[in-house]
Specification:
Layout: H1 2-56, H2 61-64, H3 83-87, H4 90-121, H5 127-136, H6 142-156, H7 163-166, H8 174-184, H9 190-197, H10 202-213, H11 215-231, H12 234-239, H13 248-258, H14 263-283, H15 285-295
Helix pairs in contact: 4-8, 4-11, 8-11, 8-15, 11-14, 11-15, 13-14
Length: 299
């Protein structure tokens, strides 16, 4: 009798739990659907300027500012991609931008990786103090040092050259140093001891052990540096006056100032200039995500 009663209670409890479980499953599905809706709406909002840029690059002038927007015009204006190159030497602008971007990216990674290795692996008096002082420079806004830097480069005779754009990059970037240092701290110290037993010095430890293992963080630094230098506008505007030294962002500003507001041509150049950034990002996307996740694990 007790056995039957016990089985009956268990069956009743199971029957009572089923509606609750199904209700929780239904709520979970509703929450997931709402999350997908929010993600889709956010994606549409944030990608709207991107698709409008591409659409405007092939529109005739009278269709660009129409409201509501005309996404696919009845007449495709591919001359928007040709006209800027006829009016200004955008081929030279792209060449200048590529050179500055590559040299700046190499300089940032080379110098910052050495400094990050020193902060992560070496032990010396005041190491943590120097590291905190370096991090404090990240909070210093660029307008605060813009005028002193311009005066310095003017007196050195570097204005109207690429030196002010490249020299600071070869002295290290605080953000990249912090990123690489955090990642290098996740590499086991036991590997240093094993390398030292094999006769490896500081340079060998850096070049043969730590640097190859820091490839994901280096990928993040490369993407960050490439994007910054490729889109940099303020510093070239300050230091460059000769048209043959201009970069693409300066060329786009010159296009609008010299030939009124050419939305079609500007959007066409912007579309072309966005292609290298997208290629670099999607090529190194896996390293980018992995480096961002692991770099914040250990401090």
């Amino acid at each position: 009798m007790n056995l039957v009663t016990r089985d009956t209670k268990a069956a009743l409890a199971l029957a009572a739990d089923r509606p609750m479980a199904s209700r929780q499953q239904a709520l979970r599905r509703i929450g997931r659907v709402l999350l997908y809706i929010i993600v889709v709406v956010g994606a549409v909002i944030f990608t709207f300027p991107f698709f409008w840029m591409i659409s405007a690059s092939i529109k005739p002038p009278y269709d660009i500012m129409k409201l509501p927007p005309v996404w696919i015009p009845d007449h495709l204006e591919f001359s928007n991609y040709v006209r800027p190159f006829q009016e200004l030497p955008f081929g030279t602008f792209f060449e200048n931008t590529i050179i500055i971007t590559l040299l700046g990216m190499i300089g940032v990674i080379a110098s910052s990786s050495i400094v990050a290795f020193a902060f992560a692996r070496m032990r010396f008096p005041g190491r943590d103090t120097f590291f905190v002082a370096m991090l404090a420079t990240i909070m210093l806004p660029y307008p605060a040092i813009m005028i002193p830097s311009y005066v310095l480069y003017t007196r050195l005779g570097f204005v109207n050259t690429w030196v002010p754009l490249l020299l600071p990059e070869w002295l290290g970037s605080p953000f990249v140093i912090f990123l690489l240092r955090q990642y290098m701290l996740t590499i086991p110290v036991e590997m240093d001891d094993a390398a030292r037993i094999d006769g490896c010095g500081w340079f060998g430890l850096f070049s043969q052990i730590v640097l190859p293992l820091s490839a994901p963080a280096l990928g993040v630094a490369a993407i960050y540096s490439f994007t910054f230098h490729w889109n940099n506008f303020l510093e070239p505007l300050l230091y460059l006056n000769r048209t043959e030294l201009f970069t693409v962002p300066l060329g786009m500003a010159l296009l609008n100032s010299r030939y009124a507001i050419d939305f079609g041509g500007t959007m066409a150049i912007a579309t072309i200039s966005l292609i290298p950034v997208l290629v670099v990002f999607f090529t190194a996307q896996r390293h980018f995500i992995q480096g961002l996740v692991i770099s914040g694990v250990k401090g």
